[in-house]
Specification:
Elements (H helix, E strand, L loop, with lengths): L17 H5 L17 H8 L13 E2 L8 E18 L10 E8 L4 E8 L11 E11 L12 E5 L8 E4 L24 E2 L1 H5 L9 E9 L3 E3 L24 E9 L4 E7 L15 E5 L2 E3 L5 E3 L5 E4 L4 H14 L17
Parallel strand pairs: 1-2, 4-6, 8-9, 12-15
Antiparallel strand pairs: 2-3, 2-5, 3-4, 5-6, 5-7, 9-11, 9-13, 10-11, 11-12, 13-16, 14-15
């Protein structure tokens, strides 16, 4: 067999394996045409850092709310949401905030206000939720309209744009015992301002720091309505129940509540409508501080800017009211007991 003669081109054009010729570059290394050389994952991490695991760049001191001092300083706090409302701030700027959630957060020592700015609105909040906040600055409320009694300090955070702050929902580690003690409560003593629901309706609502302890009786479905609730601006306090554009529907939920003296209807508006989904009838106890009261005929309660709602508080009166509600739900057996001294007829 004649020997095979090698072509001279093979010395100047080395063969490239077919697998290497057809291999495409990895997708995550290929920048898009409009990203200025950045990958999609890098852009997502920069625009929405809250979606990625947060790593603090400095030390944050664990602090009770009563120990907060206005001014710069990295602090970490934990508490429960006792009130919140949403203020939409529509903007066409890509990095601008789309709204602000104004929360009142309390622990066993005090309460303060959190202005949580958001761009995507992916915070699932409800009353009684245990949350943690990391912030580099705390300040005094700038106006009386933002002032909430027992919560004169405020922090403003935007975790999606600022890596020096963070907001975390502690839904996985919440055992239902932390930050459950009402402010000012002492074992064996009556909580200041606490009264029966009947006393509150008949004039107790005029007190500056009135409190009621009620149990959830029934929960209605979510409803859409165009009529907004009344606004209470007395004493410089604004009712932030619903903030919506004219002609736009608002959402509400009616919750029937009671104690051993009376019953009433509690109406929740806007984002607060998600809270009753976590409540149980004839079991969940609400300690409501400074609720609004209105309505002709049947009393109607509402949450105003200055209201605090402690869900299932750790206090003796709450345990008694839950036991009272449980006793009311017991039903006698459908079969009547055999009368004493009766005669059996076979």
């Amino acid at each position: 067999m004649a020997p095979q003669i090698t072509s001279i081109q093979s010395f100047f054009q080395p063969e490239v394996p077919s697998a290497r010729r057809t291999q495409k570059p990895a997708a995550h290394h290929q920048p898009s045409n409009t990203s200025d050389g950045f990958t999609s994952s890098e852009i997502e991490a920069a625009l929405h850092p809250s979606l990625h695991k947060w790593q603090p760049r400095t030390t944050y001191n664990d602090t009770d709310i009563r120990d907060l001092v206005a001014g710069p300083g990295c602090v970490a706090l934990m508490g429960r949401v006792v009130n919140f409302h949403n203020v939409a701030t529509p903007s066409k700027m890509p990095r601008a905030a789309k709204g602000c959630l104004k929360l009142t957060v309390k622990d066993n020592t005090g309460a303060f206000t959190v202005k949580l700015w958001y761009a995507r609105g992916d915070y699932d909040l409800h009353l009684g939720l245990l949350v943690s906040i990391w912030t580099p600055h705390v300040s005094n409320a700038e106006s009386c309209s933002l002032m909430v009694r027992d919560a004169s300090l405020v922090t403003s955070i935007f975790p999606e744009r600022d890596n020096s702050c963070y907001f975390m929902v502690q839904d996985q580690s919440d055992e239902g015992v932390m930050c459950k003690t009402p402010l000012g409560y002492r074992d064996g003593k009556q909580l200041d301002g606490l009264m029966t629901l009947k006393s509150f309706i008949e004039g107790g609502h005029e007190l500056s720091d009135g409190k009621i302890l009620v149990c959830v009786k029934s929960i209605g479905g979510r409803k859409k309505c165009e009529k907004l609730p009344y606004s209470n601006e007395s004493n410089g306090l604004t009712d932030f129940l619903v903030i919506t554009k004219k002609g736009k529907e608002a959402e509400k939920v009616d919750v029937n509540v009671f104690d051993d003296t009376a019953d009433a209807k509690l109406t929740l508006w806007g984002p607060l409508c998600s809270s009753p989904a976590y409540w149980k009838t004839s079991y969940t106890i609400l300690l409501i501080t400074r609720p609004g009261l209105h309505g002709d005929g049947r009393p109607q309660l509402s949450l105003i800017n200055d209201t605090h709602v402690d869900v299932d508080p750790c206090m003796t009166d709450a345990y008694w009211l839950r036991g009272h509600a449980q006793r009311l739900t017991k039903r006698e057996h459908v079969n009547q007991p055999f009368p004493e001294g009766g005669v059996y007829i076979g």
